[in-house]
Write a structure and sequence with these properties.
By secondary structure, the chain is mostly helical. The protein is built from 15 helices and no strands. It has helices at residues 9-36, 39-46, 62-85, 87-109, 126-140, 146-166, 178-187, 202-219, 226-247, 260-283, 291-297, 300-307, 315-323, 327-330, 334-355. The radius of gyration is 21 Å and the shape is globular.
């Protein structure tokens, strides 16, 4: 029996694994495909793009994994905070965090800093999905019984499934679905990518966070050992994935609508990824290999806000300025060099911040 529950290294590592793909990892894979051009690299590069509508690619796991890990982390801190500070103070913090994440999402992707009303998008970013999923999961956690929490999560999945399938006059096409219709009705011109839905999928954003909560409940269960926890995670992950695939024959797997089948499939994959990281790092004890992921995972918000997709700091441009003289000699391999150096710069920055114990959190 484990006497004390501490923050698990595997969760930080998995969070960093999630971040590295949007902060240079996907670019490196694409550049390798450009240099090698093989069938294998072509498949890998295709998975560095989101599915156009139906389907699932590797890159489609990034956003649900961010929400899922939020749920895992809640378990390690939420009840302890309630016991220490009381519900009122904890839920004040929840609301503050919700507002801050929402505003950061508007800054990142909602054009808030343009200070032009007509350009602002209200709900269009991963951080806002995390915010509303975190808020919803916090309310569900008031239901102390795990059975009631599972029931509430199932209710969210079923409710969203019913809304997108059984409202007359709507279907699951890009132009004809009910979820995007609601966004367009309420947001009008203040909407980001018109192929993405946000308001109704908030039900399943919350469900995704709750799937992370359930995984966290397994990890914090002091009545079972590490090997049994690992077995439970694998079973849950397989169960969720298989369930999602089965219902996808009726409820297609569409990330842009965050359908219930997508929620289950992605939640299953997230749980299986967690089991891999947990098994290698916390069960088998192999930790050093995960250090690059850990230093990113401990500062995930900073990675996302500043370095993801080169939104504010372009490490690729910095790398190019350093090695531009090599371009004539390396030719098609030059973009690979730039991508590798860009990742090295990113990791160097976060190694330094980790060494100085500098972490940006809200």
């Amino acid at each position: 029996m484990e006497k004390k529950q501490e923050r698990l290294l595997s969760i930080d590592a998995l969070r960093g694994f999630d971040m590295i793909w949007i902060a240079g990892g996907a670019t490196l894979v694409n550049k390798l495909d450009g240099a090698i051009g093989s069938e294998v690299t072509g498949v890998l590069a295709a998975n560095m793009q989101h599915a156009q509508w139906e389907g699932f690619t590797f890159l489609d796991i990034i956003m649900p994994l961010f929400l899922f890990i939020t749920g895992c982390s809640m378990v390690f801190s939420f009840q302890k905070r309630i016991e220490k500070h009381g519900r009122k103070k904890v839920y004040r913090h929840v609301l503050q965090r919700f507002v801050l994440l929402w505003l950061l999402g508007m800054i990142y992707q909602g054009n808030l800093l343009s200070l032009q009303w007509e350009k602002i998008d209200f709900f269009s970013n991963t951080l806002q999905a995390i915010a509303i999923g975190y808020l919803g999961a916090s309310l569900i956690l008031l239901l102390k019984s795990i059975k009631w929490q599972i029931g509430a999560t199932a209710f969210l999945l079923i409710t969203y499934w019913g809304l997108v399938h059984f409202i007359p006059g709507f279907d699951l096409t890009v132009e004809g679905n009910f979820a995007i219709y609601i966004d367009q009705l309420l947001f009008k011109s203040h909407i980001g990518n018109a192929e993405y839905a946000w308001i109704l999928p908030s039900l399943n954003f919350t469900a995704t966070v709750m799937l992370g909560v359930f995984a966290g409940e397994v990890l914090t269960n002091t009545s079972i050992g590490k090997n049994k926890k690992l077995k439970h995670l694998i079973i849950i992950g397989l169960g969720l994935s298989i369930s999602g695939f089965i219902i996808s024959f009726h409820d297609p797997c569409i990330k842009k609508l965050w359908t219930s089948s997508f929620t289950l499939i992605s939640g299953g994959y997230c749980t299986l990824l967690l089991s891999i990281f947990y098994g290698i790092i916390d069960v088998a004890g192999y930790k050093k290999w995960a250090t690059p992921f850990v230093v990113l995972g401990k500062n995930a918000l900073l990675v996302y806000m500043v370095f993801a997709y080169n939104r504010f700091v372009d490490t690729g441009a910095i790398a190019h300025r350093i090695v531009f003289g090599a371009e004539p000699y390396l030719q098609k391999w030059y973009p690979v060099l730039v991508s590798c150096l860009a990742l090295a710069i990113l990791l160097g920055i976060f190694y330094y911040l980790n060494k100085k114990q500098t972490f940006i959190k809200i």
